[in-house]
Amino acid sequence: ANMSVCKQYLTTLLLVLQRSRDNRRTLISQNGWQRWLVGLMMQWVGAGKEGHHVTDLAYSLFQTLLHHALQWEQDGWLVWVETLSILHTYQCEGQGIPVSRRDDNT
């Protein structure tokens, strides 16, 4: 996939999710959304500054969705636990999760 298309998609998705609780609820109810989002992040590892931008957008999506789950969903803590489990699996498999570069001016 083209990185500029990916960035535009993630930016638009973030706006759509930030504007509607129903949109956030719909996405977190989908099986595998965390793996999909981590997969997008992993695709652009090592792509320099633009890759860091994709990673930052993905982290913003995680933040928005996990905050929603914890604040608005009855069993939102389960979404949090499932997400941690998925991230832990990536770490244990040696794939590592890209670090956000928000404070890095590189």
Characteristics of this structure?
single chain; 106 residues; mainly alpha; 5 helices; 0% strand; flat
Q: How is this fold's topology laid out?
A:
Layout: H1 3-19, H2 21-28, H3 33-43, H4 48-72, H5 76-92
Descriptive report:
With 106 residues, the chain is an all-alpha fold. The protein contains 5 helices and no strands. The protein has helices at residues 3-19, 21-28, 33-43, 48-72, 76-92. Helix 4 runs antiparallel to helix 5 (76-92). The longest helix has 25 residues, at 48-72. The mean pLDDT is 86.
Summarize the structure.
This protein has 106 residues and is mostly helical.
Q: What is the multimeric organization of the chains shown?
A: single chain
Rounded Rg: 14 Å
In percent, how helical is the residue content? over 70%
Largest sheet: none
Provide the low-confidence segments as ranges.
none
The whole-number mean of residue pLDDT values reads 86
Shape: flat
Percent strand equals under 5%
Distance between the termini: 24 Å
Q: By helix and strand content, what is the structural category?
A: mainly alpha
**Topology pattern, helix = H, strand = E:** HHHHH
* Strand segment tally: 0
H/I helix tally: 5
